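Readers outside the structure-tokenisation community will struggle with the description of the input data as it stands. Showing the layout once, in full, would remove most of the difficulty. For illustration, here is how one protein appears when written out as sequence plus structure tokens:
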Amino acid sequence: MSRSGEELATLVRARAGDAPVRLGLILGSGLGHLAGAVEGVAIPYGELPGFPHAGVSGHNPNLVIGELEGVRVAVFGAREHYYEKGNPAAMRPALELLRALGGEAVIATNAAGSLRADIRPGDLMLLSDHINFSGLNPLIGEPTDARFVPMGDAHDPALRAALRASAEAEGVALPEGVYAWYSGPSFETPAEIRAIRILGGDAVGMSTVPEVILARFMGLRVAAISTITNMAAGLSDEKISHEHTKAMAPLGAAKLERVLRHFLRHLR
């Protein structure tokens, strides 16, 4: 862990107390209100030196430390995407902080477009694996041999099983699928979507994969869930836009909140 992670942890503990955090939650579009349900302390990203910029509309750039369903969590109300500044490692300070605070695992959420007819806008998809369609990597430039991170079980089987069980208990459909990371900020072309389908992708989005790589690099266990906001380009007549994403995200977010709360209540 870098010195910056330790320094950030000291700053955060001075505001939020010394009790260790167990789990990190990275909130995607439509889930910002979940941070408000945490009984704890909210710290604006701007007050944390070196923290990600996270300047996308529809996100709430606060770190919230506290209790949610009886579990001490660190909730990241926004993420900095690669397309904002061209830095795939933008979320490294946030994940280093989570590790320094005692975190063992991170659950990432995102908004995504579906490539499958049986997964529609308003549905959820649990990531079974991912495709780094962008070809970028947040560990480029890392000087140690730790950069050679095995990714065979990057999406932790035990966490996925627990999330599936929580979804079943809540009566929420949670199919699994492969998520493809597209750099953005422009949306994909129909030809690119056809290519991703041939490669085995089930959903596409502009985040999450860098965080999964970084988290595994740091020894954190990872699971991720997509909220489906649209069918990918060429698969429907709907007009894809960021405003459309923000409007549709709350449909799946309500289901996702139920799943996450149940998951936390039964976390072992």
Notes: The helical segments are 3-16, 33-36, 82-85, 92-100, 157-169, 190-199, 209-217, 242-265. The domain at 3-265 is CATH 3.40.50.1580 (Rossmann fold). The mean pLDDT is 91. The longest strand covers residues 221-231.
